[in-house]
Amino acid sequence: MNEATLIRKGLFRKVLRAILMMVSISIAFFIFGVLGAVNKAFNAGVDVAAANRLVIVNAINFTVSMPYAYFGRVQGVDGITHVTHANWFGGYYQQPANFVQTFAVEPETYLDVYPELILPPEQREAWINTRTCLIVGQALATQYGWSLGDRIPLNSNIWQQADGSSDWDFDICGIFTAEDSSVPTNYAMFHYEYFNESLAFARDTIGWMILTTEDVSLNDQVADEIDAMFANSPAETETTTEAAFSQAFVEQLGNINLILTSVIGAAFATILMIVGTTLVLAINERTKEIAVLKTLGFQSGRIFRMILTESFLLSLIGGAIGLGLATALVMAAAEGFQAFLPGFRMPLSVVWQAFALMIAFALVTGFFPAFNAMRIRIVEAFGKL
């Protein structure tokens, strides 16, 4: 009879109780894993943002457009390597339920600003030289089964053409991928000129501009110069880092991080109280058994270590099961979610956070029961016989 056997027998002294506690813990870590993956996917744009990439929007709100003339003026600012612009199209394919995230962009400069997007040379040439060309991301092409050469219509729920139509016809001449799987490819882009010339209203306006600086250290200088350039104009600007812009865009849906943290926190707090109370009751049931061990020569420190080890095993086994199930679910759903949540996968950072939480959970739930067990006095324990 060694110490490992005593720990195992103590943990599974009542098998059903031990299993139910593990199930409770696994549920908490299942929720943590799935919501952690969702939160990471929602913030993918923040994580992949380039440090030297800035975004210029209207100071009122990024949904308010700016004059096209601003583009030429920004190009003359010192410290900038590339600058481009984009407009939100708000498209859908065939019916409103088939949402397609689409942007009208300046074709040549956009790919210069986003070098992580990969478009084969022949497709890049076709994209630049074909006014009706639409390039689509691999995830979007997979979602709708599109391929090179397809001619498709996209309908806008925002914009209207001068002839009253809200349909634009496109030829798919490029399918882009990305250097890293965390970079989204669930959207499409087409020529700003093709978009602008046919509009019924708001012509010669742009939604936002994106630029890269020569060095990260120039970010503040460039941002201040641009915003000062358009100060006191009808359309003042606000220039921020790409990460800040992406975060602001996500927050339009609500404080996702706070919502997910609240859900996870509530789950852990509830299960912490359940498991902690159960462990305290379990140790109280074993008062006389622990007194016998002390009578046989087990030191108080050894008793403390054994009880705390039980708590660690309980937390690690339950947590590993829950995290494993969460990972399996995320992997199974990843492909289907790429069009809506690009980069949806189980991040390694969430896995490490989960294991850190397992250790913390074991310490919180196991310390006081182990401490109480260590303090049990043999005379008092046997006096209750």
Sheet with the most strands?
6 strands, mixed, barrel
Radius of gyration: 30 Å
Helix content: 40-55%
CA(first)-CA(last) distance: 26 Å
Shape annotation: elongated
Q: How many beta-strand segments?
A: 13
Structural domain count:
2
Number of helical segments? 15
Order of helices and strands: HHHEEHEEEHEHEHEEEHEEHEHHHHHH
Strand content: 15-25%
Low-confidence stretches: none
Strand order of the largest sheet: 4-5-10-7-9-8
Structural class of the secondary elements? alpha+beta
Summarize model confidence as the mean pLDDT. 83
Tell me briefly what this model is.
With 385 residues, the protein is of the alpha+beta class. 54% of the residues lie in helices and 18% in strands.
Describe this protein's structure.
- It is a single chain.
- The protein is an alpha+beta fold.
- It folds into two domains: 3-45 and 255-383, no CATH class; 65-234, no CATH class.
- The protein is 54% helix and 18% strand.
- It has 15 helices and 13 strands.
- Strands 4-5-10-7-9-8 form a six-stranded mixed beta barrel. It has a two-stranded antiparallel sheet with strand order 2-11.
- Strand 4 and strand 5 form a beta hairpin.
- Helix 2 packs across helix 13, helix 11 packs parallel to helix 14 (348-374) and helix 13 (300-337) packs antiparallel against helix 14 (348-374).
- The mean pLDDT is 83.
